[in-house]
Structures are given as structure tokens and as C-alpha cells.
């Protein structure tokens, strides 16, 4: 009898251990594991482990006054510049790549994901920043980036009114903005040091002024074949003017964006719906070098029960893709010119 009772008690103890797993104390009281005097912490949660880690990093960023935004990420321009060794951005040590791609580069400086756990369907992650390590890392990055900014601004170029020059200045501006965001973090960690550094770094506003000055001297000829509703060309013009360039009707400009729109009506089985397959193909060309710098390619289909409405829907669909897909390609292209 005693033997059976012992077995029953043992089973109950084991089951209690299985079904009543405690979540780590840092979920509710992170300071117990990471003292506030040494660390800054933030706990994030999500339906997946990655969501929890991103949430934790962004909550930690909010401590330094940055608005939380799940849509922010390191720009391709800065990522490439770091890969080339021309600028320094945060080393994402111990943080998974798909998490790094969803947050701002400056939010990773001195940050580690120290632990994760799961409670039911919810994942938790704790982002930890060692105050002194982060302070040292921020100062180091700014001190390495500033000479590169000054080098770009002092660079002598054969043609200042070129997209290549615009791209160089764009990198200098983006790096200056990045460093200013780091200085805001340093304000919290060491206000005296940030005040001292701020006096010696290049202002992003001064670089932006020079960038826009160069952009305003770069005209781009825009031409579209088969645009009867006058929708496509204005969309291209807005894309170009939004970065500071001018648009032109002069075919002799150095930079030319030319595209052709082709529409093909498509029969439908019910004979009640009107469909159109559309294609927009073209290139941004540099007539000085003869190079086709950036291709433009849009394909899709529009439909409507109204024959007169289907054309409107077609051109609006093309316009939307220029505003999104082509505009993103254009900005990435400007950031990749060597």
C-alpha cells in the first residue's frame, strides 16, 4: 500500500513539473536579472520568436525617444555601404538576420537579445543594452563615420551635375542622419560626451542642402508612348521630382527616361467582363555614356464589367505600380551608383 502511494505521489510531482513550467522572472521584472544601473532592458512579445525579438528591440529604442514602427528597417544604401567598408553601422551580434532586416540599424548598437521563452502561444524576448558598452560603441561608430562624410564632401568630381555625384552625396547625408540618431542615444547614456561630439560632426542639414543643390541641376527627359489619359508620364515626373531632380521635355538632356505602354484586350469566358493585359517597358538612359542605367518593366491585368471603365482601371493600375514598385527601384538604383 505504501509502495503504491509513493508511486502515485511521484507521478503527481512529475506532472506538476510538466504542466506548471514557470516563465523566467525577467518577463515581469527584468531588473532582477539585469540591474538598471548597468543595463537598459525591454521585453517584447509576439506570436513568433522573431516578432517578440523585433518588438523587444523597438521597445528598447523607444527608451531613447524614437517612435516605435514595425515597418522600419536598415536601408539598402547603408547596408551596402557597410559591406563595402565605407561606413560603420551596428554589428548585429547574436541577432538573427531576418530580425536585423526589420529594425533600424541605429537601434542595434550595443543591443543583445539575451533570452527568449514561450508561454502558451506567446513568445517573449528580452533586449539588453549594457550602458558602458553601448556608449563606447556609439562613440566609436561616429568617430569612424565622420572622416568618411568629410572625405565625400571634399571629393573632386569631373561632373558635379551627375547622378553619380548625387549618389555620393546621398550616402554622406544618410550617414550623417544615422550618426545624429546615435547622438540622441548618447544623450541618454552620456550627455556631456554627446554635446562634445555634436560640435565636431557634420550636420545632416548642411549635407542635405548640398544634395538638393546638385539634384536641382540634373534635368531628366521623360517620354511615354501610348499614354492617352496622361497618367503615366506625370507619375514618372513625380517620382523624379520627389528626389529633387527636374523633369524636362528636351530630348537632348543627358538623362532620359523613355517607356512604351502596350495594351492587349483579352476575351473572357462569360463575355460580360472586359479585361486588358498591360505592359510598360522602358529604360533610364545616360546619353553621355550610352548606358541603359535602370530598366522599367511593369506587367499586369485589369478588368471591369464596363468597357469604358476598364481603360481607366488599366492606367490607374500602371500609375500605382510606378508609385510603388518603380519608385522603390529608382531609389535603390540611385543608392547603388558607383
Description of the structure:
With 338 residues, the chain is of the alpha/beta class. It contains eleven helices and eight strands. The protein has helices spanning 2-19, 30-33, 49-62, 76-84, 97-100, 131-154, 163-189, 191-198, 204-215, 232-241, 307-334; strands at residues 39-46, 111-119, 122-130, 219-225, 246-248, 255-266, 274-286, 291-304. Strands 5-4-6-7-8 form a five-stranded mixed β-sheet, with helices on one face. Helix 7 runs antiparallel to helix 8 and helix 7 (163-189) runs antiparallel to helix 9. The longest helix is centred in the last third of the chain and has 28 residues, at 307-334. The chain starts with a helix and ends with a helix.
Q: Key features?
A:
338 residues; alpha/beta; 5-stranded mixed β-sheet; 3-stranded antiparallel β-sheet; 22% strand
Number of strands: 8
Total number of helical segments? 11
> What can be said about the biggest beta sheet?
5 strands, mixed
Q: How far do the termini sit from each other?
A: 84 Å
Q: How much helical structure, as a percent, in the residues?
A: 40-55%
Name the beta content range: 15-25%
Could you report the average pLDDT, rounded to the nearest whole number?
84
Task: Identify the strand order in the major beta sheet.
Answer: 5-4-6-7-8
> pLDDT below 50 for ≥5 consecutive residues: which ranges?
15-20, 67-74
SSE string, helix = H, strand = E?
Answer: HHEHHHEEHHHHEHEEEEH
General shape: flat
Rg estimate, integer Å: 28 Å
Structural class: alpha/beta
